[in-house]
Amino acid sequence: MRRVPLRVLANEPVGPYRLLRLARGSLDPGTPGQFFMLEPPGRLLPRPMSLCLAPRGELGFLIDAIGPGTRALCTAEPGDELHVLGPLGKGFDLSVERPLLVGGGIGVAPFPHLADALDAPPVVVGFRSTWHAEAAALLPPQTEVVVDPVLVTDAMPSGHDVLGCGPEPMLKAVREREPTAQLAWEAPMACGFGACFGCVVPIDGQLKRLCIEGPVLCDSSTRAAVSTR
Amino acid sequence: MRLLNASGCLDALTAPDVARSLDAFVTKTVTPLPREGNAPVRIAETDVGMLNSIGLPNAGREEFLCTTLARVASIGLDVWVSVGGFAANEYAETCAQLRGRDEVAAVELNLSCPNVEEAADTAAEIVAACRAATGAPLYAKLSPANWDISATARAVEAAGADGLSLVNTIRGAALDERTLAPRLGTTTGGLSGPALKPIALAAVFACRRATELPIVAMGGVLSGRDALELVAAGANDVALGTVLFRDPDAPVRIRSELAAEVAALGLRDVDEARGIAHAGGLEAVRRELSRVTD
To answer: CB distance from A206 to chain B under 8 Å?
Structure first.
C-alpha cells in the first residue's frame, strides 16, 4: 500500500466548490463510491475524497472548502504535487436494474463517475442555493435539480434502485423512503485503511470502521449516525 | 534499532504488508472484556498534531486468545501484545493467559491511555503483578504527563519491567472553528504527531539517565531524522504512530532516510548514535575520542 505523488492538472471553480483534476499516474480509479486519501499541503493528515470524475489519464475530485485541510487542497495549483492513496473502501454495487441517483450538496461528488458507469441513469439532486446547484453541470443533462426548501425526497420517484450520497439528514430521509437504498456515508478519517479506528459508525448495532465496511452501506439494518463535517 | 508500530496505530489484519515492513508488530490494546470504544467523533487534526479519542475498542481477551493472536502471528513477524486493564489483577490475568503462547515476543503494558479511566493501582504495582504472572519480556508504556517520569521508570524497573515504551499520547482538546464546540465526542483526547516529539525526547532523555532498561521510543516520528534524534536521546528501538495514518509506506521511507542521515554524519550505523546526546553530541564525542587516542 503506497501513496503516490500526483500532479495537479487543473483546479476549477464549480459553484462554491473546486474541481481538482490530477494526473492519474499508476492509480486505478476503482469502483464509483470508493475513496482516495488526498494529502493537503502543510497538513498532518490526508482527507478522504470520493472520486468525482475518471476521464482517461485523470482523477477528478470535487471539494468543498470547509476546514484547514480542504482549504489547503482547494488552493493547490496546476503543477503542484499531491500525495494520494487509493482507491479505498467499498463502492456502489452497480448490478442494479433500475438505478436512480439521489444526492445533495457536496454529496453529489461521486455521481459524475457513477453516472458514467451506469450509462446516464436518472438523477435527482438537491442544493441549498442556485450557486451550489452549479455542481449539477457535472451530471447528465436530464438531471432533476431542486433547491432548498424543496427536498430531494419530494422530487424522487419510487420504484427504483436508489444509490445515494449527501448530508446525513438527507440520507436518513432517503432510507425511510427506500430501505434498500445503497447510501454513501461520511466520517472523519485519519488513515482510510483500517488503522486508526477513527471513522467508526453504528453498523448492525456495533461501531464499525466506515473505511473498511463502507463508505457505501446497503444493508437496511445499518444505522450510520455520525455528524458529517 | 528495530522499527515497530505504536499500539493502536496499525491493524495487521487490514494492512498486512505495512505490518510486514516493520521489525515487530504491536497489537491494539487487549482488555479483559470486549470494549466498543468511545462514541464518535474520535479524531481531530490540529495545526500541531492529531487528537484521538478511540477508547481502546477491542474484542476482549477471550476473542484475542482464541482467534486474533493466531491470525496476527500468521502474518509472520514478531508480535508484541499490548495489554490493558482497570486494575493490576486484570493486567496480570491477561499476562497469565498469554503464558505458553509462542507467538508472543513481548508484552507491552498500556499504563497510560489518556482516553479511558486510569487504573487505581500504580504503574509499579501493575508491573509487579504481571511480572509474577509471566516470564515474557515486559515493556511498561508510560505517560509523558508524569512530572517525574524517571521516578516511574525506576519504580517499574524495580518491579520487574524489562523495558520502557516512551511515550503514550498526552491529553489535549480542540474546538470547532465555526461553532467553538469541542470537536471530539469525549471533549478531550490524546495528542500525537509533531507536537509530541519534543515531549518524547525529554522523556527518553530523562529515562535513559535514570535506568539502563531498553527503551522503545515514539512520539511525533515523521522522518528518519526524528528516529535518529530519539536514538541519540537514548532509545534502543523506535515506534511509528500517527505517521502510519498519513503514509503507510513510512517504515520503508524512514529506514532509508535514517540510513542517509547516519551516513551523512559519518557513523557506522544508527546504533552508534545511541545516547550520544548525553555525551554532549557528536562533536563532543569525537573531540573526546581524539584526545584519548592522541
So the answer is: yes
Spell out the domains of chain A, with CATH numbers in brackets: 4-88 (2.40.30.10), 99-217 (3.40.50)
Show the cell assigned to A29. 480509479
> Would you say the ipTM is above 0.90?
yes
User: Residue B88: what residue type?
Assistant: A
Instruction: List the single residue in B9, B44, B249 with the smallest CB-CB distance to A195.
Output: B9
Q: How far apart are CA B83 and CA B130, in angstroms?
A: 10
Residue-range domains of chain B with CATH: 3-293 (3.20.20.70)
B113 in catalytic set: yes
Prediction pTM value: 0.95
Task: Find the helix or strand (DSSP H, E) in which B172 lies.
Answer: strand B170-173
Percent of chain A with pLDDT over 90: 92
Whether residue A149 is preceded by a cis peptide bond, meaning omega within 30 degrees of 0, is yes
pLDDT recorded at residue A228: 35
CA of A205: which chain B residue's CA is closest?
B36
Enter the C-alpha cell of residue A167: 448530508
SS3 (DSSP) at A24: coil
Burial class (CB in 10 A: 0-12, 13-18, 19+), A208: buried
Cell of B225: 531524522
